[in-house]
Design the sequence.
């Protein structure tokens, strides 16, 4: 039986995820576990049950409709006996029980996006793949990208940067050796990423130990992928690359990290970055999913944002906030 990625949202009329007015397709599944994550419902590959406590009227309908007896009390269930039929979600009169993730065919997603094509073209917008981490599903992305590109739609991807190419050689060898390049571009991951118009690439923490502490993984593969994509931009191959720095109070917004990220971007030959100010609107989702809250802080203060902006500009980069980017050429001459 064919399986499809779990899509947990398709948001329309977005203006912070690439040029113009866009639709953003959110996939479940992420290789990172960032302590400040604002979409924890994206972590796991499978569909998940959530309970929005504030909406619950404790009517007990979910207990009556649960076929396995997994639901023990309103909004309280035993995962080991839940078969994920989600009948409780369908029967919940207040909408307190929620399903995160639906398997969607590429044709189904394309049909929903097609309703907005005129708006994309009018505004210079398009479609952005996000998550989670959309690069976990390269075959599926290709099946979506082909018709979108045939329709002339601009396509972008937001990424944490943790993906693994096969047939990877040093960039100069990759570009000089025709057989090496053919082997590289034949892999489905590059067919997906190479077909994009724009990659919005998040760089979070430059220090390896701090990255492991706050994101759950090493950052060396992420930095290698950024350098590779930047090198391909300089070589005139592959999508436009746009770096972003999430500014999280007390974690990523200190002077050492901001300067280190800016220097890394400049050393890769790129001349601009977007600063993403932290907000705490996703904190409640940890409660919905019955997960311990990993991080909670006030929304980033305007003063901290201005300080970070000055640090980035001191390092010689143009600095933007989401939605303000001009998305012109980034290559430093």
Sequence:
């Amino acid at each position: 039986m064919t399986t499809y990625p779990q899509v947990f949202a398709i948001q329309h009329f977005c203006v912070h995820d690439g040029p113009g007015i866009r639709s953003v397709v959110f996939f479940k599944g992420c290789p990172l576990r960032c302590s400040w994550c604002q979409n924890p419902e994206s972590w796991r590959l499978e569909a998940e049950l959530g309970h929005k406590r504030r909406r619950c009227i404790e009517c007990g309908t979910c207990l009556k409709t649960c076929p396995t007896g997994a639901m023990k009390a309103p909004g309280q269930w035993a995962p080991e006996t839940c078969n994920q039929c989600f009948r409780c979600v369908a029967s919940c009169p207040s909408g307190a029980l929620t399903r995160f993730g639906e398997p969607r065919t590429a044709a189904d997603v394309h049909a929903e996006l097609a309703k907005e094509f005129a708006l994309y073209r009018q505004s210079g917008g398009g479609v952005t793949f996000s998550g989670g981490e959309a690069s976990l599903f390269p075959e599926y992305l290709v099946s979506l990208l082909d018709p979108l590109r045939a329709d002339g739609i601009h396509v972008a991807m937001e990424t944490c940067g943790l993906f693994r190419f096969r047939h990877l050689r040093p960039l100069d060898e990759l570009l000089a050796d025709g057989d090496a390049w053919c082997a590289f571009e034949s892999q489905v991951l590059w067919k997906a990423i190479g077909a994009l118009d724009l990659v919005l690439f998040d760089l979070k923490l430059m220090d390896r130990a701090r990255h492991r502490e706050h994101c759950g993984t090493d950052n060396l593969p992420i930095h290698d992928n950024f350098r590779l994509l930047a090198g391909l931009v300089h070589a005139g191959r592959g999508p436009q690359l746009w770096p972003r720095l999430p500014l999280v109070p007390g974690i990523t917004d200190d002077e050492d990290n901001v300067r280190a990220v800016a220097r890394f971007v400049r050393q890769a030959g790129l001349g601009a970055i977007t600063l993403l100010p932290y907000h705490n609107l996703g904190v409640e989702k940890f409660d919905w999913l019955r997960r311990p809250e990993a991080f909670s802080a006030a929304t980033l203060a305007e003063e901290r944002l201005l300080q970070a902006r000055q640090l980035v500009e001191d390092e010689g980069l143009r600095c933007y906030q989401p939605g303000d980017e001009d998305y012109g050429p980034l290559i430093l001459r």
Summary: The longest strand covers residues 6-14. Residues 3 and 21 are 30 Å apart (CA to CA). The chain has a mean pLDDT of 93. Residues 6-46+101-320 form a domain with the TIM Barrel fold (CATH 3.20.20.70).
